[in-house]
Predict the structure of Heavy-metal-associated domain-containing protein.
Amino acid sequence: MASISTFPALHLPFPNSSPVPRRSFSLPSSTNFTLSAASFRHSPVQGRSLPRFLKQVRAVEEDASVPELGVETEASSPSPSDPPAVTVPVSPSDVLTMFFQAEGTLNESAIPSVTEALEQTEGITGLKVQVNEGIASVVLTKQTTIQSTGVASSLIETIQGAGFKLQTLNLSFEDEEEVFV
């Protein structure tokens, strides 16, 4: 299970005359992602300890072993004892609908090329590419699964490759799970 950790504020022990402003890092409260606790391992960097205000942190998956730093690991060549890849069917509860809205700039003459590039992508519905008052927008929905990775980034690469210059991206997801009453 992958995890994300956030810290309420970054406090550095530097004088206030530092040219770098102090900022805090936080996720917006409307984020639709589930955050879970992570397993962390703290260790010194091969014989040197880090300054007191810095710690080396490695995030790992639950129930995964982490090799010690400085220990050589075996080459990642496949061995006969490695199990073959397993294909798991997608259950209906894993299906998501992604709502994709990108805004930016685009020449009106490039609208057909962006539209054509996106129409070749499987699972896209409700496609609308338009330019209003100098602001271009691409709006679509796409069927995807929880296991799929890189879906939004591949759509971004597609529209940028067709001439769209991205400024704002809004993504939201809807679970296709049926509700029993």
The first strand starts at residue 39 and ends at 42. Residues 92-175 form a domain with the Alpha-Beta Plaits fold (CATH 3.30.70.260). The chain is about 10% helix and 30% strand.
